[in-house]
Task: inverse folding
């Protein structure tokens, strides 16, 4: 795993950078949040990195802060979210804006991001709220209260339905994806479970 890279910035043409590290040129893809903080070409740059190995290619992704990389890695764990979508999210919203949208159960704000539809936004909320719990204290008090109110409405119902499906032997990602797909904003957890079992069957 390549976790950090330091070298001379040779080229920057979004989303790709070329960085010279002791004579070796590394091609690095980065979100616009990182591009906005880069030095001029010819100067030294330090980036936190995430290395992805696939059968057909190796990709190196770079981030100006460890927080950006952390969010990128959390996004990759969401079903249906790949590196390109994760970079798009980081390029289109600040970390605080994205975390606020997830914690506030605000699918509408997430769908304003390029390439994020309603179902994807709901899946991001369902699968990331617990994973972003450690970031909770960084959100202002007023926004935390809004998030708590949102969770008090739909979040426990969705989580109960997902937990029940997992207990019945379904994979967590499959359960979360199905509940996200069928939730109409009004059904009880029992109704969601019954509907999900018919959907999966």
Result:
């Amino acid at each position: 795993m390549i976790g950090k890279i330091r070298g001379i910035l040779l080229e920057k043409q979004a989303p790709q950078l070329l960085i010279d590290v002791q004579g070796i040129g590394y091609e690095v893809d980065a979100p616009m949040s990182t591009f906005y903080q880069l030095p001029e070409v010819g100067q030294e740059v330090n980036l936190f990195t995430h290395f992805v190995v696939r059968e057909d290619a190796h990709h190196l992704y770079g981030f100006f802060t460890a927080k950006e990389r952390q969010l990128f890695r959390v996004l990759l764990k969401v079903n249906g979210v790949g590196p390109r979508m994760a970079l798009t999210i980081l390029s289109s919203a600040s970390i605080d804006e994205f975390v606020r949208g997830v914690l506030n159960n605000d699918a509408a704000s997430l769908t304003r991001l390029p390439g994020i539809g309603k179902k994807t936004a709901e899946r991001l909320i369902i699968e990331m709220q617990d994973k972003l719990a450690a970031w909770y204290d960084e959100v202002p008090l007023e926004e935390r209260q809004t998030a708590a109110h949102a969770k008090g409405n739909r979040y426990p119902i969705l989580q109960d339905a997902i937990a029940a499906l997992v207990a019945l032997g379904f994979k967590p990602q499959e359960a979360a994806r199905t509940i996200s797909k069928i939730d109409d904003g009004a059904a009880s957890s029992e109704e969601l479970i019954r509907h999900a079992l018919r959907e999966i069957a």
